[in-house]
Amino acid sequence: MKRYRREDEVSYALGITLTFELLKFSPEYATKVYIHSQMQRGESFDKLSSLCKELKIPMEFSDKPFNILSQKENCFCIGEFKKFDRPVSKGANHVVLHNPSNAGNMGTIMRSAAGFGITDLVIITPAVDHFDPKTVRASMGALFHLNISVFSSFEEYKEQYGNREMYPFMLKAKKKLSELKVKKPYSLIFGNEATGLPDSFLNEGTSVIISHSNRIDSLNLPIAASIALYEATKEDF
């Protein structure tokens, strides 16, 4: 076993909570569960063992994978899974991330999207690896609830999914979020953490700004995305 690399065919859910999310919501991709010698035997372990037996997923008792894969001292369970291709749906609402560069931010947005009921995520490259264990961990397992499609350009995405309302979030936007009435199906579009969206996105659908005080220059990406997701979906709950 080696440290995770982007070109690997498998990735890892680090921790028992994430492993349970994998086994419950994407069991068809799970390949193995690693157990550390210091993992306590009890109710959680019994549930995990029973689930692995039911799904016919092997459990390997070894500390070596943890020394290679996990930097966390309290990680005693790792779920290994095959990287999956589960494309977004044309009829669904999408979150579109344009050139995201931070694994933690991407994972946090995944979690917010799943929490607000949007389970279709589009990634425009270049982008951070959505299967990186850091992304999986930051998502708290929300990755396993999502459909994800990756495109090399926004134009390529539009060719397949362009018949929808587009809402790019930008500082130079035409409309305040508080004034927006979303129309389904829609795409909420967010730019890179440092540079945001290019000005060309002012011509894509209805550009939106999240108003805030002049004490800051902008909101960070996961917070902006979470606010936008709440506003877009608040009538759904």
Tally the structural domains: 2
Question: What's the alpha carbon Rg, rounded to whole Å?
Answer: 19 Å
Name the average pLDDT. Answer: 95
The CATH homology group name of the largest domain? SPOUT methyltransferase, trefoil knot domain
User: Which CATH class of the largest domain?
Assistant: Alpha Beta
Biggest sheet character:
5 strands, parallel
Number of helices: 7
- Quote the distance from N terminus to C terminus: 45 Å
| Parts with pLDDT < 50 across at least 5 consecutive residues | none
Just name the CATH architecture of the largest domain.
Answer: 3-Layer(aba) Sandwich
Q: Specify the helix fraction band.
A: 25-40%
Secondary structure tally: strands: 11
Question: What is the overall shape?
Answer: elongated
Going by helix content, strand content and strand pairing, the class is: alpha/beta
What is the strand arrangement across the widest sheet?
7-6-5-10-8
How does this structure look, described?
The chain has 237 residues and is of the alpha/beta class. The protein has two domains: 10-82, 2-Layer Sandwich (60s Ribosomal Protein L30, Chain: A); 94-236, SPOUT methyltransferase, trefoil knot domain (Alpha/beta knot, 3-Layer(aba) Sandwich). The protein is built from seven helices and eleven strands. The strands form three sheets. The chain has a five-stranded parallel beta sheet. A four-stranded mixed beta sheet has the order 1-4-2-3. Strand 2, helix 2 (43-55) and strand 3 form a beta-alpha-beta unit. Helix 4 runs parallel beside helix 7.
